């Protein structure tokens, strides 16, 4: 019948379009079977390159004054809650500063701890004008500490040639600034030597 010829022509054309790599003889051979398995050729997906987000350069950060503390915010009472949070952070880090705690274990953890919010005092310095400065650390950079004093004065104290003391729950630790010339993020991954020459 005419209908069956149309159907046969349609099926042949459909198989030819669906399986372009197959020859006519092979398609004809497939039509003699009861089941036909169609091949699938997925389109190759082009991978889109992810664009890396660019941060600010050091010059842009300076121009935008991202790290500058406004004069009206330079008051020690504003940062006392930060100090309380820091004390709790250190207690949790050291599992409680108990009297029987081993000093070298606490010292090792303090070397890698974040010091933003800690109250420190300059105990020794090659520059006598720095000795006695006490306050809360507001910012730590590679070479300096920015400290707010009780007199609401923001002091920029270099780490080099200075020794800082830090007291918490009766435990006093000393920071030798010359051995501490790292950013806080770099310090957390550094392995400090337990013994070595100590110098201003």
UniProtKB/TrEMBL annotation:
Chief location category: nucleus
Key words, A-Z: Nucleus, Phosphoprotein, tRNA processing
Span of the signal peptide: none
Compartments where found: Nucleus, Nucleolus
Molecular function terms from GO: ribonuclease P RNA binding
Biological process terms in GO annotation: rRNA processing; tRNA 5'-leader removal
SMART domains recorded: POP4
GO CC term, one of those recorded: ribonuclease MRP complex
Top-level taxon of the source organism: Eukaryota
One of the Pfam families matching this protein, by short name: RNase_P-MRP_p29
Function: Component of ribonuclease P, a ribonucleoprotein complex that generates mature tRNA molecules by cleaving their 5'-ends.
Subunit structure: Component of nuclear RNase P and RNase MRP ribonucleoproteins. RNase P consists of a catalytic RNA moiety and 10 different protein chains; POP1, POP4, POP5, POP7, RPP14, RPP21, RPP25, RPP30, RPP38 and RPP40. Within the RNase P complex, POP1, POP7 and RPP25 form the 'finger' subcomplex, POP5, RPP14, RPP40 and homodimeric RPP30 form the 'palm' subcomplex, and RPP21, POP4 and RPP38 form the 'wrist' subcomplex. All subunits of the RNase P complex interact with the catalytic RNA. Several subunits of RNase P are also part of the RNase MRP complex.
Annotated family: Belongs to the eukaryotic/archaeal RNase P protein component 1 family.
PANTHER family per record: RIBONUCLEASE P PROTEIN SUBUNIT P29 (PTHR13348:SF0), RIBONUCLEASE P SUBUNIT P29 (PTHR13348)
Name this polypeptide is given: Ribonuclease P protein subunit p29
């Amino acid at each position: 019948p005419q209908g069956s010829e149309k159907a046969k022509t349609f099926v042949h054309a459909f198989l030819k379009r669906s399986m372009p790599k197959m020859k006519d003889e092979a398609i004809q051979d497939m039509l003699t079977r009861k089941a036909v398995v169609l091949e699938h050729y997925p389109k190759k997906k082009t991978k889109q390159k992810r664009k890396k987000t660019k941060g600010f350069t050091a010059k842009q950060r300076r121009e935008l004054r991202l790290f500058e503390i406004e004069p009206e915010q330079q008051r020690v009472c504003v940062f006392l809650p930060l100090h309380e949070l820091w004390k709790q952070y250190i207690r949790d880090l050291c599992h409680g500063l108990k009297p029987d705690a081993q000093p070298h274990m606490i010292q090792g953890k303090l070397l890698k701890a974040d010091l933003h919010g800690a109250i420190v005092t300059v105990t020794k310095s090659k520059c006598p004008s720095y000795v006695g400065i006490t306050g809360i650390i507001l910012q730590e950079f590679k070479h300096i500490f920015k400290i707010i004093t009780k007199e609401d004065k923001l002091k920029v104290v270099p780490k080099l040639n200075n020794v800082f003391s830090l007291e918490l729950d009766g435990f006093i630790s000393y920071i030798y600034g010359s051995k501490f010339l790292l950013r806080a993020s770099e310090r957390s991954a550094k392995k400090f030597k337990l013994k070595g020459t100590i110098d201003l």
